[in-house]
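Continuing from the previous page...

OK, I double-checked the sequence for Acetyl-coenzyme A synthetase against my notes and this is the correct one:
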Amino acid sequence: MDAAAYEAAVKRVEDDPEGYWRDLAKRLDWMTFPTQIKDTSFHKHPFHIRWYADGVLNVSVNCLDRHLAERGDQVAIIWESDEGDISDNFTYRRLYEETCRMANVLKAKGVKKGDRVTIYLPMIPQTAIAMLACARIGAVHSVIFGGFSPDSIAGRIQDCDSRIVITADEGLRGGKAIPLKRNVDEALEQCPDVTDVIVIKRTKADVPMKAGRDAFYADLKQGVEATCEPEPMNAEDPLFILYTSGSTGKPKGVLHTTGGYLVWASHTHELVFDYRPGEVFWCTADVGWVTGHSYVVYGPLANAATSVMFEGVPNYPTTSRFWEVIDKHKVEIFYTAPTAIRSLMREGDEPVKKTSRSTLRLLGSVGEPINPEAWLWYHRVVGDSRCPVVDTYWQTETGACLATPLPGATAMKPGSCAKPLPGIKFELVDAEGKPLHGATSGNLVITDSWPGQMRTVYGDHERFFNTYFSTYGGKYFTGDGCRRDEDGYYWITGRVDDVINVSGHRLGTAEIESALVGNENVAEAAVVGYPHDVKGQGVYCFVTLKADVTPTDILQAELKGWVRREIGPFAAPDVVQFAPGLPKTRSGKIMRRILRKIAENDLSNLGDTSTLADPAVVDDLVKNRGG
Ligand code: WTA
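Thanks. Re-ran it with the corrected sequence; updated structure tokens here:
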């Protein structure tokens, strides 16, 4: 897309929104093409988000069947194993057959349209197959990132009342085995309603199998047919639930539906990455996060792309791994997270320069703000100064990308996600919700719907409205702070709520606090993020112990381990500081602003502490700063 085409598209959505959004839907194969296009209101009376509401389609047909005639023998998924010892190609035909088989296995287990299926798998092709198999029969998948702990798994299974779990014996990452089946077994002690566990063999480790509940997929698929009639789905039927962290309470089940989500995932995959038929596209995200859903599986496959699925990590066996995989599979488009770029940048240019990367054409970044230094290194060293960088801003809630520079249409500014895509209406507002104009900073809201928007919080529509639409009446609040410059470019400055972004993993500080107070030694905890060179943000915990507990280094380490086990290793605190008291207002509210400043070591600037119930606690916190 060039600049003129971008402007024309922006104008067309203004002048003829129905026509624009209808045309966009034509990129999919529908069993019944929708006549109702957009029916949305962000206001409480009435409040609803519906797209293409009378359309009928099946996502797996769009990702598989419709490509078979012309691209049946083209590779759909290139799988690269952790060790690099195995790479396995799944053509569209093979992926179609495997999906149908798994769909038939699920049906035989009694899974029906609308049932929730939990998927707790590593980065192996069977994960994509399981997702597509659910879509084929109209089941709703809930993928849980393999780094989550048994407790986190249990909470997610209970929340959506899922009766079946697909997992693997073990996962492999950076040479380490992850005990997936064991984690599931432990989780299921709290989930008596789960009737079936399907186990895929990845490492062939010996795992306990519970009679009557657990079965190996290899046994179940014996003799199962490789065709399966797709379930006709209404555009607004649920496709998946994906749990994500918010500023309060337990993780929310973000629900995406069938038609609008796929339109937006496939449209943005083509537009943002300028995807051209036959190219090899590699998004390094784990399928357990939304980026993996939209840009490893659904977007690329809907577009008949070749998508690389990588089981490993950026620095194993060596820090050249990413670049070697690019050469090995002749990757044209590479999409990763700033945290990976920063950690590899620390290793210097040599591990990059010793590889060719001559196939690379475009680079992408996602998940957190990218600092200009990392952006420049990515552009200059990885992309040899010849590949444009798309800095894509979006969220689990938005389904797929919202804002990014478009190569050829928008000039790049390192660290800016440039401008919203046609149809996405950004606005900056002040704390009272008053729209701000021109070059300024504010809270980022979106004033109108787009097809990929989440439809509800699973099981709690009220929470959906309250979380996103009540702060700035009738507008979707992203939770992000943002600056707009004199050229109308947007610069995301990070979350303004109590969500933190640690190595691109989204965490609620409330979740970590709740884990900490679950420990018998802890009376109270307050958690904030602070700037971290590699991880973007680190986790800083202020912990008040119970009166009879002695603060020791051992206890500090124990509490870090406790959070690892309660939530997952990626949530492990970087700092635990024992605090005899926390700074509170007289009404008992913890003043996080002050804690953030202490964590950031911005001590000259603690602001007004006179409203605190006991201003002296601040002195103690400053004196005993950890880090
Ligand atoms: C942040 C990941 C700056 C932002 C797709 C958002 C970004 C949160 C960018 C969503 C970017 C994502 N620049 N910040 N390009 N992309 N973010 O739900 O704070 O895991 O609200 O979705 O990540 O994280 P989530």
